[in-house]
Amino acid sequence: MPSVKQRRAGLSALNDEVIGCARCCRLVAHRQKVSAEKRRAYHDCEYWGKPVPGFGDPNARLLLVGLAPGAHGANRTGRVFTGDRSGDWLYRALYRAGFASRAQSRSADDGMHLRGAFITCAARCVPPGNRPTPQELLACRPFLIRELELLPRLKAIVGLGQIGFDSVLRTFAERGVDLPKPRPRFAHGCETKLGSRQPILLGSYHPSQQNTLTGRLTEPMFDRIFSRVRDLL
């Protein structure tokens, strides 16, 4: 197993590759457009406007995989799930479960650090309509494969939403892992063993406003996911 120093260096090098990626013309154009037009509330902010790398502890035993950066959240701040209401929900839950040092994540330099957890996304650029194409997800998949290789202590993975969950399954299949049959289906609270000596994959509704404002996802429901993760760890 690589040392913590080697893992940290590997993740840093990977993050540089992610930030410099320009593979998907549609996503490059959209993220630049959003960053130039801005939201009125952030008119005086300089947007990040680049692909957003993963964030967290190189000793992570928990990996969270979301959909994509928020247009005025991570695409603005440069840190995944930071600066929008989805991030507010996620970091509050991680803080309550002991995985985050703070209950709020406002900017990339706010002092937030994760304990035993790492957060990433299936797509690294903000997509139009929050819907990356299958081809765009495929173009990003090597980054997730590399992150899994650089996080060898993982015991649990939480797929935040259908796309995050499915991206994990496809990534493990590409790594040559024999997945259970029939193919696992996403549901909030579902659990899947990803083969011998592999992490447990859990499904959770994504903490998007579409789910949190409608009551489809409540804080007690979200907390139960991380309580179960604690049991697994």
* Biggest sheet record: 6 strands, mixed
Distance between the terminal alpha carbons, to the nearest Å? 19 Å
SSE run:
HHEEHHEHEHEEHH
Number of helices: 8
Uncertain stretches? none
Note the beta-strand portion.
Answer: 5-15%
Provide the helix percentage.
40-55%
What does the model show?
The protein is α/β, with parallel strands linked by helices and 233 residues long. The chain has helices at 4-19, 25-37, 74-77, 85-96, 134-150, 161-174, 209-212, 219-232; strands spanning 55-56, 62-66, 117-121, 156-160, 191-193, 200-204. It has a single domain, classed as Uracil-DNA glycosylase-like domain (Uracil-DNA Glycosylase, subunit E, 3-Layer(aba) Sandwich), CATH 3.40.470. The protein has a six-stranded mixed beta sheet. The longest helix has 17 residues, at 134-150.
Features:
alpha/beta, 8 helices, 6-stranded mixed sheet, Uracil-DNA Glycosylase, subunit E
Please give the structural blueprint.
Elements: H1 4-19, H2 25-37, E1 55-56, E2 62-66, H3 74-77, H4 85-96, E3 117-121, H5 134-150, E4 156-160, H6 161-174, E5 191-193, E6 200-204, H7 209-212, H8 219-232
Parallel strand pairs: 2-3, 2-4, 4-6
Antiparallel strand pairs: 1-3, 5-6
Helix pairs in contact: 1-5, 4-8, 5-6
Offer a quick outline of the entry.
With 233 residues, this protein is of the alpha/beta class. 40% of the residues lie in helices and 11% in strands.
